[in-house]
């Protein structure tokens, strides 16, 4: 028996699996995935500059080498009986096996022994080989960088010599099996740094290759020892079945384009340009009015990339959980037109269950005890899959929030590269790109650079973007072309080195929309009782009225007042619900306000959650003052569809609630003008300019206003009538924004290590104080229960973290909330509530909190 077959790679209970065989299990998964994915072949060949055969050889060599660090007595002693059989020496019982991490230590051995493995190979090429190995050695979560030697203490020299020879033997065998047939030597390592997708690809292959449902252990005797080549060939069928069972192979059956996806629909507006775009790796920016079909256009172009084998999947990212939920049904309707099966369309927030193989893997490792503990690949895979936020990136169509996409570029985050692999093999579509601040843009630009490096494409959607933002995004892609096109609507396609502009030749199929503007001005930026009565009257006459507040407390207060005044339904939708309830609320909103909803008057009071991606329609809209681009987004829910309207609301009308600033002295502190609204929207100059334009116009004409108004509001130069104090305040704001962007860029390269927990999307991808995570519970005999009666799992239960997330809600990190909430435990605030006739109640000094599934968490005074 060859020495390397004495080492175990997987073990459970009394049986074990030889380490070389496990390496080939993982290699078999990689090989069949490579064979069945033209996109993956293209990605690795593109980045290495090699023909596919040679790129394949290098990838296979390193993937098979990923567990090199298990050829070490400290790992082998995790199963003492097997170690004692392997080594002909007395082994000390305390070698620190629990703290031996074979990925990190394997990298150290690789660096330390490079002269042995790669004799006569130049040091420069040895360094490059070490960089490539680091990517696969990081398959348990973090790419190793520390090469400081860490020799096993108190063992006989014969043990360390045996381990070194085993490592050397494996490298020689893999060189013979993979590199030599491709005519490659170690001197031919093609790039200093490995392909950006290698670490994630290796990790997922390791997860599947460690799944005993598809790769049963094979114990061997010297008489039936199989050569590695024969064993490798024998496991390829298992690998193909695993890839298919987990839904990781894309079976595209479309030629792509608008006609293929929407055969019964005549393309309109920006959609008519899609088939003119070249089918190649690109950054696409689509600017078109709300409701013009940008989503369908993006999916049509993505399907062309898929049909041309330039991607395997689609990742669709949106600003919030609510917008992601709303998008899922639209994507499911076209999934079967793109792929042979739509079983692996996954929403990254738990609405859609994973497939049965995902579930079985999770359940198996929930109960299993393994000598490697949490470091065992199957256990790490199960932990990953137990979160829908993460497993979405292993689907054919993933619907997620932009935060989850941004985590793929935060390198200190554990397993960030699995997300980046999922995105890199996909067409990445990001909607509502205007909705992000400078901090988020810093990370998004890193995502775009990473996607370009990986050979992937990006599609960005917005009603409109200021020219400077488009310029910044194109620079992140790697092109310095000047972006100053004024036409609207518009598609911009940045390829490898150039930018192409596509615009409509005629406006025949663009529906002009004129919105009447009404201003409600008060000193405190509020809605009066008389105005509330107008709202009730409109709804009772049959109008669908939408009120968009900037603050949750305002939304709850006005919904309560209107509910007491009106005889018709008053609905509310905001962010302060448990996530599991918020999904039901969202469905109610869509049922009552989409284009198919009953023609009867209602009032919806909401916050920013209704301004993005929700296909709802109002006859009359009232909005509190906000930046012009977001106000236009809100107006996109006004007369969104062609339908019969109540007589008094045949024309779209938007009423804007704003402060009366006619007699306000701006020389003191302009921030005081907008109060808490300025806390939500910190760019005071943009609020002031928005208000100025609204005061100067009785109507807004679309689509012209998208380009004209937004460019004027975001113009870098000072307006003629702009108070100097406001200009100075804006300069301070821009300095802060610049700093924020560089802070976030630094985060993508930081050395600090972050665990990949459910809460890190907010804490790492959003600047400033994050919301506090509150979990409403009831308590009985010292045991906590969710409001639906299920027991609350422990926070350290890695398989039930999502259950905690589903039952949590966010409140502002303010002195008020910190003063009334109980002490936090593990970053969570468990709010013990009592069931009453009104809902679940929590009393504090001077007031109470009430939670209902209809109204969410609201404050009350005693």
From TrEMBL:
Q: Name one GO biological process term.
A: defense response to virus
Which regions span the lipid bilayer? none
The record places domain HD Cas3-type at 12-208
Q: Which UniProt keywords apply?
A: Antiviral defense, ATP-binding, Helicase, Hydrolase, Metal-binding, Nuclease, Nucleotide-binding
GO MF annotation, one: catalytic activity, acting on DNA
Q: Which InterPro entries match?
A: Cas3-like_dom, CRISPR-assoc_Cas3_HD, CRISPR-assoc_Cas3_HD_sf, DEAD/DEAH_box_helicase_dom, DEAD_box_RNA_helicases, Helicase_ATP-bd, Helicase_C-like, Helicase_Cas3_CRISPR-ass_core
Which SMART domains does UniProt cross-reference here? DEXDc, HELICc
Q: Return the similarity comment.
A: In the central section; belongs to the CRISPR-associated helicase Cas3 family. In the N-terminal section; belongs to the CRISPR-associated nuclease Cas3-HD family.
Q: What is this protein called?
A: CRISPR-associated helicase, Cas3 family
Give the organism the record lists: Methanolobus vulcani
Q: What is the lineage of its organism?
A: Archaea, Methanobacteriati, Methanobacteriota, Stenosarchaea group, Methanomicrobia
